[in-house]
From TrEMBL:
This is MMPL family transporter. Its main location: membrane. InterPro entries: MMPL_dom (IPR004869), Mycobact_MmpL (IPR050545), SSD (IPR000731). It is found in: Cell membrane. Belongs to the resistance-nodulation-cell division (RND) (TC 2.A.6) family. MmpL subfamily. It is a multi-pass membrane protein. Keywords: Cell membrane, Membrane, Transmembrane, Transmembrane helix. It comes from Nonomuraea purpurea. The chain crosses the membrane at residues 12-30, 181-214, 226-247, 275-296, 302-326, 361-383, 536-558, 565-584, 604-624, 656-685, 691-711.
C-alpha cells in the first residue's frame, strides 16, 4: 500500500507541489479570519443545572446580565458626591443606543455593594446589543472618556477580546522564537541548509491548515479561544517531527545509491508507514475528547485531530514530492557534518543499548522509581476552574475582576445564582382554546410572579452557614421565575462554597414552587467535575481499545499494545505530577510568570491527558517499527531490541529536541492554560524520549523475550489479512536447488553456515527448523527458516 502510494507521489510530484502551493496561498486569508470569531468559556456541561441557570440568566434576565464592567475611581472625591454621579451618568448617556441596551449604576440601583469599602470607587454594569464583540469595539473608547475619573474596563466581553488579542500575540511570539532556533538545530542535525528548511516548509503548511480548519469549524460550532495556540503548537511540532523521520529515510536511500523514484518509494514503505500509524494513534487519542460534552474539549479535540491529519498528510505527500524533485540535491548547501544519527559503530546509542541488554532489570526498576517519584505530587491534586487569572497580571480585564473582588463586597460579581420556578394559576377559568370570534374566548391571564413567591426559600437560604445576604436579582414573567443572588464569605472554589451549593440544592423549595435550579461559578465547577468523572472512563476505554487495535495491526502482537499502554500511563503520571508541583503548588510561578490559583483546571487536565497520551505513543511507534523489522530479520529478540534502539535513538532524540523547542516557545504564552499544556507536553516528551523509550521500553522488552511477539493462531491469521508490511515488496524468488546445512558452532560464538564453495552466512545464533531441528535451509544467500511455533515460512536477510 505505502509502496504504491510512494510511486503515485513520485509520478505526480509536480502536480502535488503546484496544488499544495495554490492551496496554501488561497487558504491563508481564510485562516486569518479566525481571529475574533472564537468563543470564550465552553467549560460547562450543556445538560447540567448550572448551565441551564446560565442560559436562563441570559434569555430571561438579559437586562440584568452585564457584558461590561466599568470601574470608576477618584482619589479624594467619594461616590456619594453629586459631581461623581454627574460625571459617570454623562459618560454613559453618550453611549450610542444602537450598541448599548442598558446600564446600571449605584445611583440607579441603590445597591451598596456597588460602592468600594473606602467609598472612592464604584462600577457600572453595561449590557450590549447584538454582536457583543463588535458592539464593544464601537464603545470601548467612549467608556473610558469620563471627566476627572480614572476608568478601567473589564467584564465578559472585554475579557474575550483580550483573550483573542493575547492568543494572536502569543502565536506570533512563539513562531518568532521557535523558527530561527529550529532552523539552527535542523542544520546541525542534517548538515545541509536545503534539508533543514524542508521541515519548516511542512510546518508552515500544517500551521496554515490549522488556522483554516479552525476557521471552518466556527461555521458549524463554537470554537474555544484557547484552541488557537494548542492546535497550532501541535501542528507545527508534529509536522517537524514527522518530516525528520521521512528525511532521514530518504537520505539513507539516496546515499545507498537508489534513484529518486526508488528512494521515494522505499521511504514511503518504511518511514511513511511508521508516520501514518503514528499520526493515526495521536489523532485517535485527541478524538477521544469528542466524547465530552464541553465545547472547550470538543472544539480542541476536533481541531487538534484534524491538524494532526494535515501534518501527517503534508509529511507523506508534500515532503516526498519535494524530495522526488530534489533527489541528491537535498544535501546541497552543506554547512556542517550531520550529527543527528549514530555512527556506523553505534557510538553513544550502541553503548546505551549494550548497557540495557546487560542489566535490563536494574534499568527497569531504576526508571520506574524515577517516574513514580515524579508522579507523587499528583496525589494531592486539587481541581479548579478557568477564570480571569489565565490572563497576564497586567491585563485590564483581570485587574478589574481583582479590584471588584478585593475592594467591593466579596463575591459581588460571582454569587450563587438561584432560579425559583413558581407554580402559577389562571386568573380566570381558562376557556377552550380557539380563535376568538368563532365561539371561543381568549385564555385567561396567569398569575404574575412577584418577589414574595421566593421569600420562604430565601429565608431558609439566609440561615445556611457562610451566607451574608440573599437578594432578588430579577423577575421573569415569561419564564415564571424569581432569580435570587446568594452572597457568601468564602472563596467560590472552597469546600465551604461547594457545601453551600449542595445545601441549597437539598432545601425543601416550599409552597407554590415547581422547581429550583442553582447556578453560578461554584455550582458550575461541581457540575463540571461530575461530568468529567462520568465521561473519562469511557474516553479511556475507547482510546485504549482503538490504539490497541492500531498497534496490533502495526506490530502483530497482543503483548506490545498492552506494554505500550502501561508505559504511557507512567509517562502521563510523571507529567501530571510535575504539573501539580509547578502550577498548583506554584513552584514555577516566578520562572514562567503566572499566578498560581492553588488548583489545576479540570478540563485542561483532560486535554493534557489526551495530548500527552498521543505524543507518548508517537515515539513508541517509531521504536517498535525498527525493533519489529529486526526481529523479522533475525528472529533474536535481544538483538532486535538492541538494533532498534541503536537505529532510532539518535533520530528520536533529534525529533524530541525539535518538538521541545516548539513547545518551549509556546510555553512563553501569556495565557496560563497554554503554559500549563506546554509544560505538561514538555515534561512528557522529555521523559518519553529519554527515560521511557531509551531505557524502560528496551529493558521491558529484553526481559519479556519472545513473549513480546506472542499472538494466538486465529489472531495471527487475522493479522496477516490486515497487516501493512514495512519495506518495499520483494520480487519473487525463482525456484533454485536447495541444500541443507548443519550449523557449525565455534565456542559459543555466532554460528557460521555454508561450505567452501557457498556464500558464508552469519546469524546472531542458530535458528532451528521445525522440520529438521538444528538445521537451516540456504537458498542463494537467503536463509529460509520455519518458526518453531509453527507460524509458517519467513525470509530473513543475511550477509553474504
Amino acid at each position: 500500500m505505502f509502496e504504491s502510494a510512494g510511486r503515485l507521489v513520485y509520478r505526480g510530484r509536480w502536480t502535488l507541489l503546484v496544488l499544495s502551493l495554490a492551496a496554501v496561498v488561497l487558504a491563508a486569508p481564510l485562516g486569518m479570519e479566525l481571529f475574533g470569531r472564537m468563543a470564550d468559556g465552553g467549560f460547562d456541561d450543556p445538560a447540567a443545572d448550572s448551565t441551564t441557570a446560565a442560559h436562563w440568566a441570559e434569555d430571561w434576565y438579559a437586562a440584568d446580565t452585564p457584558d461590561v464592567v466599568v470601574i470608576y475611581r477618584h482619589p479624594t472625591v467619594k461616590v456619594r458626591d453629586a459631581r461623581y454621579k454627574k460625571a459617570v451618568h454623562d459618560s454613559l448617556r453618550k453611549l450610542p443606543g444602537r450598541y448599548v441596551r442598558t446600564s446600571a449604576t449605584y445611583w440607579t440601583t441603590g445597591s451598596k455593594r456597588m460602592v468600594s469599602k473606602d467609598g472612592h470607587s464604584t462600577y457600572a454594569l453595561v449590557t450590549l446589543k447584538g454582536d457583543g464583540q463588535r458592539a464593544y469595539a464601537e464603545v470601548a473608547d467612549r467608556l473610558r472618556d469620563v471627566e476627572n475619573l480614572r476608568v478601567q474596563v473589564g467584564g465578559p466581553v472585554p475579557l474575550l477580546a483580550e483573550l483573542n488579542d493575547q492568543s494572536a500575540a502569543d502565536l506570533a511570539r512563539a513562531e518568532a522564537i521557535s523558527t530561527p532556533v529550529l532552523l539552527v538545530l535542523l542544520v546541525v542535525v542534517f548538515g545541509s541548509l536545503v534539508a533543514a528548511v524542508l521541515p519548516l516548509v511542512v510546518g508552515l503548511v500544517a500551521v496554515v491548515g490549522a488556522l483554516v480548519l479552525l476557521r471552518l469549524l466556527t461555521e458549524v460550532t463554537d470554537v474555544s479561544v484557547f484552541s488557537l495556540n494548542v492546535v497550532t503548537m501541535l501542528g507545527l511540532g508534529l509536522a517537524v517531527d514527522y518530516s525528520l523521520f521521512v528525511l532521514k529515510a530518504f537520505r539513507e536511500e539516496i546515499r545507498a545509491g537508489a534513484s529518486n523514484e526508488q528512494a521515494v518509494v522505499a521511504t514511503m514503505a518504511t518511514a511513511g508507514r511508521t508516520v501514518a500509524f503514528s499520526g493515526l494513534t495521536v489523532a485517535t487519542a485527541l478524538l477521544g475528547l469528542l466524547l465530552f460534552p464541553q465545547m472547550f474539549l470538543r472544539s480542541i479535540g476536533l481541531g487538534a485531530a484534524a491538524v494532526v491529519v494535515v501534518a501527517t498528510a503534508a509529511a507523506l505527500l508534500v515532503l516526498p514530492a519535494v524530495l522526488g524533485v530534489l533527489g541528491r540535491r537535498v544535501d546541497a548547501l552543506r554547512l556542517t557534518p550531520d550529527f543527528g544519527y549514530a555512527r556506523r559503530d553505534g557510538g553513544f546509542w550502541h553503548a546505551v543499548a549494550s548497557s540495557v541488554m546487560r542489566r535490563p532489570l536494574l534499568h527497569l526498576l531504576a526508571v520506574t522509581a524515577v517516574l513514580v517519584a515524579l508522579a507523587v505530587p499528583f496525589l494531592h491534586v486539587s481541581f479548579g476552574n478557568v477564570d480571569h487569572r489565565v490572563l497576564p497580571a497586567a491585563s485590564e480585564s483581570r485587574r478589574v475582576a481583582e479590584i471588584v473582588d478585593r475592594d467591593f463586597a466579596r463575591n459581588s460579581m460571582s454569587p450563587i445564582d438561584v432560579h425559583v420556578l413558581v407554580e402559577r394559576s389562571f386568573t380566570d377559568d381558562p376557556a377552550t382554546p380557539g380563535p376568538t370570534g368563532q365561539g371561543h374566548s381568549a385564555i385567561g391571564a396567569v398569575t404574575p410572579v412577584t418577589p414574595s413567591d421566593a421569600k420562604p426559600l430565601a429565608n431558609r437560604i439566609r440561615r445556611l452557614p457562610h451566607v451574608t445576604g440573599v437578594e432578588v436579582a430579577g423577575l421573569s414573567q415569561e419564564g415564571g421565575a424569581v432569580r435570587l443572588a446568594v452572597r457568601y464569605d468564602r472563596d467560590p472554589m472552597s469546600e465551604e462554597a461547594r457545601a453551600l451549593v449542595t445545601a441549597i440544592r437539598a432545601l425543601e423549595p416550599g409552597p407554590n414552587v415547581r422547581g429550583v435550579v442553582v447556578g453560578g461559578p461554584t455550582a458550575a465547577q461541581m457540575d463540571l467535575m461530575a461530568s468529567l468523572a462520568a465521561t473519562l472512563p469511557w474516553m479511556a476505554l475507547v482510546v485504549c481499545a482503538v490504539t490497541g487495535v492500531l498497534l496490533f495491526a502495526a506490530f502483530g502482537s497482543l503483548v506490545l499494545p498492552l506494554k505500550a499502554l502501561l508505559m504511557n500511563v507512567l509517562s502521563v503520571g510523571a507529567s501530571f505530577g510535575v504539573i501539580v508541583w509547578a502550577f498548583q503548588d506554584g513552584h514555577l510561578a516566578s520562572a514562567l510568570n503566572f499566578t498560581s490559583t492553588g488548583t489545576v483546571e479540570a478540563t485542561v487536565a483532560v486535554l493534557i491527558l489526551a495530548v500527552v497520551f498521543g505524543l507518548s505513543m508517537d515515539y513508541e511507534v517509531f521504536l517498535l517499527s525498527r525493533v519489529r523489522a529486526e526481529w523479522l530479520r533475525t528472529g533474536d529478540n535481544a538483538a532486535a531490541v538492541a538494533a532498534g534502539l541503536r537505529q532510532t535513538g539518535g533520530v528520536i532524540t533529534s525529533a524530541a529536541l525539535l518538538l521541545l523547542v516548539v513547545i518551549g516557545a509556546f510555553s512563553t504564552a501569556g495565557i496560563t492554560i497554554v503554559k500549563l499544556l506546554g509544560v505538561g507536553m514538555f515534561v512528557a516528551i522529555l521523559v518519553d524520549a529519554t527515560l521511557v523509550r531509551a531505557l524502560l521500553v528496551p529493558a521491558a522488552m529484553r526481559l519479556m523475550g519472545g513473549a513480546n511477539w506472542w499472538l494466538p493462531g486465529p489472531l495471527r491469521r487475522l493479522h496477516r489479512r490486515v497487516e501493512l508490511p514495512e519495506g518495499p515488496a520483494e520480487a519473487p524468488v525463482e525456484p533454485v536447488k536447495e541444500e541443507w546445512y548443519r550449523p557449525l558452532t565455534r565456542g559459543g560464538r555466532p554460528a557460521v553456515f555454508g561450505a567452501d564453495t557457498d556464500p558464508v552466512i552469519t546469524l546472531a545464533k542458530p535458528v532451528p527448523s521445525a522440520d529438521r531441528p538444528g538445521w537451516v535451509r540456504v537458498t542463494e544467500g537467503r536463509t529460509r527458516v520455519v518458526r518453531t511455533d509453527g507460524s509458517g515460512w519467513r525470509w530473513v536477510e543475511v550477509d553474504e
